[in-house]
Amino acid sequence: AKDGAVVRPQIDGQDVAVHQVLGMIQRQQALKRLNGVLFGQKHALVAVNDVPAAPGAPRTATEADTEWLLEGQCAFVAEVGLPDPHERMRAALPKRVLRGEYRIWDHDGRVAFAGFSDAAPDFARIAPVYTPPEYRGRGYATSLVARMSRELLARGKRRLFLTTDIANPTSNAIYARIGFRAENDDWHFDFVPPEP
Length: 196
Known about the structure:
- By secondary structure, the protein is an alpha+beta fold.
- It is built from five helices and ten strands.
- The chain has helices at residues 27-33, 66-80, 86-98, 140-154, 169-178, and strands spanning 10-11, 14-15, 20-23, 37-45, 57-60, 102-106, 110-120, 123-130, 159-165, 181-190.
- The longest helix has 15 residues, at 66-80.
């Protein structure tokens, strides 16, 4: 499309409403052609570094944890500025818990959580990772992500991925200590209807 032209995406010849896109794009192309926001940075891990263990231990989330996880995931989405609708999270999260895709770090109660999903037979994506504000700075999420990463690699995953918030140097440093290495930038584009 020429600059300023409206792009109407189609699937099987039918117009579809696209509200947002998240993905990789050449930085200069995005800045020249579209009003995009640099959203995050994709990182990959193939081996876990040794990191100091926080007090407590990980466990697999159960149905009894679902509401706590949902509250935390909604807080995470709001904090990071993701456009995920709460209804979608409310529908998806219980299924992920039943599939065993969430881990919780317990230290005299729940203090952090992390989720994962299979990306392919040999790959997994880690997301979300969240520590409520009152428990931050104690290494809970670092220990949890390191342990979960070891678990996934031991299950036969060869490569793990996650996306970090560019604006959060703390999480970026934590993931680097665990062994994640930056691979590419992710851009976020919101599409709004053209003004009449």
